[in-house]
Amino acid sequence: MAQVKFFTPDSSWTWYATEFDGDDLFFGLVSGFVLELGYFSLSELESVRGPLGLPIERDLYFEPTTLRELKAYHDNTASR
Predict the structure, then answer these.
(1) CB atoms within 10 A of CB 47
(2) Residue 33, class by beta-carbon neighbours within 10 Å (0-12 exposed, 13-18 middle, 19+ buried)?
(3) pLDDT tens across 36-76, in order?
(4) Can you give the pTM of this predicted structure?
(5) Long-range contacts of 14-17 (CB under 8 A, 24+ apart)
């Protein structure tokens, strides 16, 4: 179950966190060049900027969602 969503407002990258170590490291689903499970750090998210220089944001309205639902959503979005 993804609990948190981060996204770049000026590109198509999205990070869904399913686990957090309480310090800096997340595990979850990343939608970038491909859709994959993996680790990403909070410090990295805070330092990255999109193509227009905008920082990564947390989606405050995101509702916890299963990884299966997120994969289906991104698979459908990519096929358009």
Answers:
(1) 10
(2) exposed
(3) 999 999 999 999 999 999 999 999 999 999 999 999 999 88
(4) 0.93
(5) 14/74, 15/40, 15/45, 15/56, 16/65, 16/67, 16/70
